[in-house]
Amino acid sequence: MKALITGVAGFIGSNLARNLLNEGHQVVGIDTLSDYYDVRIKKANLASLPPGLDFREDDLNTVDLVELLAGVDVVFHQAGQPGVRKSWGADFGIYVEANVLATQRLLEAAKDATSLSRFVYASSSSVYGNAERFPTTEDVRPQPISPYGVTKLAAEHMCSLYAANFGLPTVSLRYFTVYGPGQRPDMAFTRFTRAAVLGERITIFGSGEQIRDFTYVDDVVKANVLAGTTPDVPPGSVFNVAGGSNTSVNDVLGLLAEMGDTPLDVEYIDAVAGDVWRTGGSTAAIDRALGWKAEISLTEGLSRHLEWAHATFH
Ligand code: NAD
Ligand code: UGA
Question: Which domains does the chain have, with CATH numbers?
Fold first, then answer.
């Protein structure tokens, strides 16, 4: 297949690119190398890939999309402005541009791209907000509580609109807090493992009793590959991609202290607006449609993440 990965220099995009290149697929990747976090990390992600990536440093809001989509079979749209807690205030415009406007522009071009057989969109558990039920199924009413979640949901709705009106074969994957080696530096596991390795203080927002359905990055890559290649998936499909951990942040700290065999220096500060209390996704639908189940347990995944932190930050 010829794949287009948007956001290819990012955490999830670069892991997906590694998998597709290793499997012998032709991969075009685009990334604007935004400065949300250290651009050197994104360049290192690209440098770590096997040879063969056709990389374009460009912005989805301005690039020639007809040329970019020429001959592409599957789009994996990972590009976006992530980060729940930063999406308030003046930064909201960045979220709208990267998450809503870029997706609309890409969908508009994709609907005329005759070679395209699938358009996979990186949606988010943040669309649910504080969900009404657990495990949350895809039909639970989305009620995001962060501006970020609003933009991810808007873009997901755009995907469904292009599916319903133009038959664009979209599949939206709602990822639940993705972790693993190379995770973004603003996210919990990278901050916690880095602090553990360097003997620095860990800051917890709120009581630490908030629960997340943490999902290992290799499982997310597999979900993308299946969503991109499984035949007869109805256009406009939406699936949770959730690791099944249902663990509190305090429990993660407990596991980490055990693994490192050292007590952690933990400080609790105020909760942050936009942070949901709990996530927990049902994966029955994605199992039925794509045969996907999470394979990496939290203990295994966290120990790999810690090993990476030792190699990276020590
Ligand atoms: P990331 O920031 O590491 O990667 C996103 C990449 O997109 C960045 O490298 C950025 O430079 C690029 N980008 C942003 N705007 C662009 C534009 N206009 N044109 C081209 N490139 C652009 O983030 P990530 O953690 O790898 O997340 C990837 C996707 O998955 C995002 O859309 C995010 O919203 C979604 N998601 C992530 C998680 C998670 O836990 N990491 C969970 C749910 C959803
Ligand atoms: C993550 C990603 O950042 C979002 O891009 C994504 O859309 C979202 O998952 C999702 O699942 O939809 P989040 O769950 O906040 O968001 O992931 P982390 O940054 O890893 O935080 C997990 C929990 O740890 C949160 O409750 C957060 O408040 C807490 N945390 C994080 C701390 O207490 N201290 C920190 O230093 C970092």
Answer: 2-177+215-243+280-294 (3.40.50.720)
